[in-house]
Amino acid sequence: MARKVPSLISLVIETIKREVVHEMETLIRHGRRCLSCAGRIVFTLLKHNLTGDRYTGKHTCRSIATYSIYIYCLYLDSSSSSSSSSCINRINSCLDEAAELASLPSFDGCIGEMNVSDGILKCIGCEGHVNHANYSKLSYHCQQFGHYASCLRLQNVFCVAETCVLLRKSNLQSLIVRWIISEKHVDGLCKLLLQNSETLTSLEFIYCKLSPTFVSAICGSLNVVNTHTHGIKHFSINTSSFLEINPVSLPPGFVSFLSSGRSLCSLKLHDNHLDRNFAWMLFSVLLDASSSLSILDLSDNNIAGWLCNLNGKSKCKVPLSLGIGKSLQSLRVLNIRGNDLHKDDVESLRCALVSMPNLEILDISDNPIEDDGIRCLIPYIVEAHDRCSPLAELYLENCELSCSGATELLDSLSNLKRPLNSLSLADNGLGSEVAGPLQKILGTAIKTLNVGGVGLGSLGFQELEKGLMTELKLVDINISKNRGGFETARFLAKLISLAPNIIAINTAYNLMPLESLTVICSALKLSKGSLERLDLTGNNWDFQPNHASMVAEFHHNGRPILILPSYLAVDVPYDDDP
């Protein structure tokens, strides 16, 4: 019997089928374990249709590739958290690439008609189909996979009406926008915000110039349709500028946004050149707002004197005229680092902290508060713990503290019935004399301690090593940049033996000689702890072949525990002078 000669179309379809099935089976073998349930169903249907006897117009290269990418997105969506963001990352890659081209002065056309590069097409499974015009167009990818675009980052060139059309299928939850500087950008952005007002929960601005009119328009666009409230939980403006700031009032739309946002839990205004008046007005609004604000970040501005109106108030109470809202009462994290705050600011801050009974984390690093400033803060810390305050983390890095002020603080903290979980005094010139007070704090239940760059020296490490006598609760410690020499290694050996729960140690740039490695490895061999990372970078070591085998046995989950100095940097001197 003569064998039936296959048709040309059947040969083409069989070739495509083998390629698609092979790629999908490879994905299954090398994936996180299995496809999602939905992916299995679609895959089965695809396989069944391709092996059937009939081939209709639906079984074209376009539909097969679409199914393949769809299955891939379902797989990623059902797998680990890192993999589930891959589809979003691919869409963002398309948009970032298009933004570079659209920003050129020579660009004059529709954004959706822009071509996606071969590299991006390869990542999302469309390589080899570029002969189909639709596959190489940005509009195709937005329309086909816009549904997965829950988290996007957009340059200002995308803040136009066309973007709303391209992303009409999206349900944005998180949006990052950059370089908003003109009314045209704001108008386009507002349309996109209105389109996603019911799903958007996180909004961040970077490198923007915002006038009061711009701010009010943007905030007004966030309200859910037919309501006067919004669903934003996280709102950030970073490394931007507020233009034409009114010295006596905030933009009305911004005030309404803060007052009506009952879902708002994180407000970050970092590095925006904010002054004391803006910060005080913001503080006043938050006192009377009804949101459950959890995080307030005003870092890297210039708000010195922002709470001066509280100075001299009886018993440091906030004036009743400012309201008794719950926004600051629910605050857990306050970050005001890098604001050129001094002693007077700390006195005022102590009064304001009374309005934050649930504060857990306070960061006032990079402010020259000096010893007098820390002495103003100590009574608040003691009183807070007497009131069973949840204050657990305190960051005082680079505050121009001396050993005297740090000693008073450490002595007070060591006597608390419920010690802090985390403390950082890094980059203050405390000297070796602070070793004694540090011994006391190490003897408490503190879990994280950062004393990097405080000038302990070899004498300080020697005193610390002698004072370690009992088991420690430490989980993470940073003792880097202290020029401790060989005494650093001796302290490490003692520390490792007495801290069974320690996970991370940073001892970089301590001028340790190479023989320190032998001491450290011996301590690790005897240790029964759970150390995952020990940073030894920045020490000028001349490695020998036997050193590689010495450190090779120390791993955690397949990764080396010892982070050794780079061979490329051994001749680079380290200078920790200010």
TrEMBL record:
Output the SMART domains linked to this UniProt entry: LRR_RI
**SUPFAM superfamilies attached here?**
RNI-like
From which domain of life does this come? Eukaryota
The record's listing under InterPro entries reads: Leu-rich_rpt, LRR_dom_sf
Output the Gene3D superfamilies linked to this UniProt entry: Ribonuclease Inhibitor
Family annotation (Pfam families): LRR_6 (PF13516)
Q: Which PANTHER family match?
A: F-BOX DOMAIN-CONTAINING PROTEIN, RNI-LIKE SUPERFAMILY PROTEIN
Instruction: Please identify the protein, giving its name as recorded.
Output: NACHT, LRR and PYD domains-containing protein 13 isoform X4
Organism in which the protein naturally occurs: Populus euphratica (Euphrates poplar)
